[in-house]
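Fold it.
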Amino acid sequence: MPRTRVTLDGQHIGRQARLPLKQAWGTAGLAGIVLYTSFPPIGLWFLAPVGPALLLIAVRGRSARSAFTVGAVFGAFFFGPLIAWLANLAVAAWLALTAAQTLILALATMLLPQLLRTPGWPLLAAAWWVAVEAVRGRAPLGGFPWGRLAFGQADAPWADWAAIGGAPALTFVTALLGSLLAYVITARRAARVRAWAIAACGTAALASSPSLMTAPAASGKSAVVAVVQGNVERARTLEEQARVRGVAENHARETRKLADDVRAGKVPRPDVVLWPENSLDSDPEADPELGGLVADSVRELDAPLLIGAILDGPGGRSYNAGQLWLPGQGPVAAYAKRQLVPFGEYIPARSVLGGLGALQLIPRDFIPGTSQAPLAAGPVRLGDVICYEIAYDSRVRDTVRAGANLLVVQTNNATYERGFQGGQSEQQLAMARIRAIEHGRAVALASTSGVSAIVGPDGDVRDRIGTWRGGYLVERIPLLGERTIAASLGSWPEALLGTPALLGLIRRRKRAHTLSASSACMPKEDQDFTNLLR
């Protein structure tokens, strides 16, 4: 039995009991699978804390090198199925991104055993999750925030923490619930009753505290929003998807159906109509045929229309943009996507990699936009975020703080759903629901081939269209102008919640260094006792 020191709360620190390595790998693999099932398309949100709990149990008492292997197993079993939809683009892309995210997580897991030997480790372990997600969301190549704990928790009773501290706070709470579960499981028998009491009180507090916050005040303003999903042919090849022009006609056709139903009194006239990302494959101001098609659609409904188009930029390059058309005026404003997708909208090291496989279908790099200003369509101030950007805190927060009273997500998920449907569209909708809660804004999600949806400020889905079908949605939604606490605090919650993990490691190392220095002059029997405290 390994020698340990027990803190006053009954937890082991120092030389902790640990699982045999193979059993730890099995536990880590189970942790990854369980955490995956908490996300769409499965959506068992209540299992999310179990994944972190199992990982903590698997890594407890291990060396840094051994913890790396445990973290690698966890990462592979989590990210592998979570982003399996990427194999619809290329199996190599799926394997490469899974490997990259797994490596980041494995390296970070090397630090966990030290944190778990520190008093107050349940809090520090939750802070570790926030810190790891902060790194994953920024590096490499701008990061990949997919799979953040917060993004699967829209239905959880603690989801309103997002309105207080954003997605980082919701991740922290979810991870802390997992830490409390691990705390109970690893407590000594004599201290288990106390551990259960602490965990129960902590869980109750975390689940009920968000209800004490002040919700954004209702402005009394509202607008009728229409989302058009034109659909595309599912059986197309990647080459056909890259050059297809029929997408615009499909959206124009569904818009005509919407106009007919408005004239027939079946649905109210919309104050703004939304088309998805890439609903046009070129610049309508440079292509008279496409420009005429858009102008006809605006005229049909006599309402502002936000399209998704590839707009011409300097140097023969392009912008992936949302462009707003007004009746009688044509195009008046545009938002260009700021967070570009590596290997999708630009190719790093193009001279080396640009000629490989499907990357040849990306003949030139897009230009990132710089504006975060909302697009004004009467009383509606559209905060446009395009596809991938919904996963980035700052991209959504910037447009809310600039005055947006309706968030719009224009997206094109056809490539990722054309074969195996691994839930990419549902995962994106889950993120949109969290952003609605976080910022107290309704969110309209417009997709070429689904899922399209309209989400209320409380995160509830008002209506939706599934994948691989055409149609439209019409809903009256509130236009809220007040900022949530999360929007006002900005990035501070992430910094404040993630920093304790680093401070805990520094404290642990300083303490170990102090004990090493003091034990050097001790008799051997005193050194043995001191080693128990490390």
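The longest strand covers residues 318-326.
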